[in-house]
Write a structure and sequence with these properties.
- The chain has about 220 residues and is α/β, with parallel strands linked by helices.
- It has 2 domains: about 120 residues, Response regulator (Rossmann fold, 3-Layer(aba) Sandwich), CATH 3.40.50.2300; about 100 residues, Winged helix-like DNA-binding domain superfamily/Winged helix DNA-binding domain (Arc Repressor Mutant, subunit A), CATH 1.10.10.
- About 40% of the residues lie in helices and about 25% in strands.
- A 5-stranded parallel β-sheet has the order 2-1-3-4-5, sandwiched between helices. The chain has a 4-stranded antiparallel β-sheet with strand order 6-7-8-9, covered by helices on one side.
- Strand 7 and strand 8 form a beta hairpin.
- Helix 2 packs parallel to helix 3 and helix 6 packs across helix 8.
Length: about 220
């Protein structure tokens, strides 16, 4: 399950990412409201953890724009504000839950489970498809004519990004920033390694789909002729 964390306090964001990752979640971190809206143009996230007090656009502005766009992603608001009026405003704008800082990490995880469970109950399937390929977002499996293969964490995030943005090219740098993050100490060359591994797994599961590269543009999914 993949989460977007929008929190401008960098140290708190890093701490929350560690906690969420330890509890089995994939997490992308952004640090202002506009970044959150930009990332959410891609429907790869299962929930948004949204701080209210952020630069560029605050959390309530982000929430309002999402609901105007009919984006129904579950939203858990984080804020230092504790007055009843603030809570009511957030919920009236379409937030699914509200957590006041400081909070226990156990409560954060419990509330994320609650809002994502409600979303799952509303969904008929948790699979993504492209041509003859199925990506099971619950089991992290690629499913093709010859069977199933299991993906590693970053492999899953790459193929999920490419499936949900079928006609878009992604450069190595863009994939790296989206999946590993701006502050990662990892070398961007790791993206090539993961793409190579995904190509092998696509063949292993019997799919005609592969990852094609185009000079000066990047990579996208295509069906082999």
């Amino acid at each position: 399950m993949k989460l977007l964390l929008a929190e401008d306090e960098r140290e708190l964001s890093k701490a929350l990412c560690r906690v969420l990752s330890k509890n089995g979640y994939l997490v992308d971190a952004v640090y202002n409201g506009q970044e959150a809206l930009d990332y959410l143009q891609s429907p790869t996230y299962d929930a948004l953890i949204l701080d209210i007090m952020m630069p560029v656009k605050d959390g309530l502005e982000v929430l309002k724009e999402l609901r105007v766009q009919n984006n129904k992603i579950p939203v858990l608001l984080l804020t230092a504000k504790s007055s009843l009026d603030d809570k009511v405003q957030g919920l009236d704008l379409g937030a699914d839950d509200y957590l006041t800082k400081p909070f226990a990490t156990e409560e954060l995880i419990a509330r994320i489970r609650a809002v994502t469970r409600r979303k799952s109950e509303d969904q008929v399937t948790n699979n993504l498809t492209y041509k003859d390929l199925i990506l099971d977002r619950t089991s992290f499996e690629l499913i093709g004519k010859a069977g199933k293969v299991t993906l590693r964490n970053h492999e899953f995030q790459i193929i999920e990004t490419l499936i949900t943005n079928k006609d878009m090219y992604f450069s190595i740098d863009r994939l790296f920033e989206k999946i590993w993050g701006y502050d990662s100490d990892t070398e961007a060359a790791v993206v090539w390694v993961d793409i190579s591994n995904i190509r092998k797994k696509l063949k292993k599961c019997g799919s005609n789909v592969t990852i094609k590269g185009k000079r000066n543009l990047g990579y996208r999914l295509e069906e082999s002729k």
